[in-house]
Amino acid sequence: MESIVEIKKLTKKFKKEKAVDNASFSIQKGEIVAILGPNGAGKTTTMSMMLGLLHPTEGETLLFGMDPRERAVREKIGVMLQEVSLMDTIKVREIIQLFRSYYPNPLSMEELIRLTGLKKEELNKRTEKLSGGQKRRVGFALALVGNPDLLFFDEPTVGMDITARKLFWDTINELAAKGKTIIFSTHYLQEADDISDRIILFHEGRVIADAEPDLIKKQLTKQSVSFITEHSISEKMFLQEAFVTDVFKKDERVHVITDDTDAVLQTIFTSNLDVSDIRVEKGRLDDAFSQLVDTEKDVS
Ligand SMILES: Nc1ncnc2c1ncn2[C@@H]1O[C@H](COP(=O)(O)OP(=O)(O)OP(=O)(O)O)[C@@H](O)[C@H]1O
């Protein structure tokens, strides 16, 4: 696989505070990676260093095997930061045309309109007259304008309504299917879970988990199988299994807490237990996130 991003032992200190602390990871071509973490976790600082906008105190970052400030790299990347700042007194159509002229293989205006949902009346507006959501749509178009291979989005859907958000993620999926690599930071855990192939979770500057969303949930959240039975169920029968962490009865239901719900189901069926209304509860990413942040458990 082709490595597009290499982050090696990256640290950023502001005075004595470590905003990013020894972060290392690599990202392969075509991956959609979510950088997740609470406020102040170091997401924006990491992204800024990846982009060469901020100089690391220690460590290095390579994009396409090169320094991110190289021109050859800049032509291959698209960026949308939290604050979209646009030149005033210029129409949206003009700013997009201007940006198109900077790149060797820009996307056509029609393609940009299709991918971003920009409307005709927005194209004719002066940038200072745009709403927050419209500004972000223009920011999105400017990120895509050079037909980049690698895209960075810092909390991209803040200020977008539901329709805009859906189109944004549909476009991201379309781009990833074409082999583009996508990195985005978000506070929306559900988005990270739905969209990304992989989550890199930051807490207090450190990478505390780096795995596919399902694996993070599996590692960190309690899953359970619960059911109703007339039998006086043998708690011991379940507890002796390595994959069971707890068994208890509540409101007529037996709950088996486990890290392998399939194995619990198999035990129920092979031992011919007379049970009904079986429910399997998988942990949610929100739970995994809170649990990680609470315990600062290192699973990376
Ligand atoms: N220019 C700066 N000078 C001093 N401290 C900074 C600077 N930029 C960021 N920090 C500090 O570094 C830490 C990480 O900030 P960063 O913006 O990277 O976090 P974040 O995960 O992006 O947060 P948020 O989700 O709120 O955007 C914070 O404690 C922040 O106060």
TrEMBL record:
Domain ABC transporter intervals: 5-229
Lineage: superkingdom: Bacteria
Stretches assigned to coiled coil: none
Stored Pfam families: ABC_tran (PF00005)
Keyword set includes Transport: yes
Keywords carried by this UniProt record: ATP-binding, Nucleotide-binding, Transport
Record flagged with keyword Phosphoprotein: no
Alphabetized InterPro entries for the sequence: AAA+_ATPase (IPR003593), ABC_transporter-like_ATP-bd (IPR003439), ABC_transporter-like_CS (IPR017871), ABC_transporter_ATP-binding (IPR050763), P-loop_NTPase (IPR027417)
GO molecular function annotations of the record: ATP binding; ATP hydrolysis activity
Name of the protein in question: ABC-2 type transport system ATP-binding protein
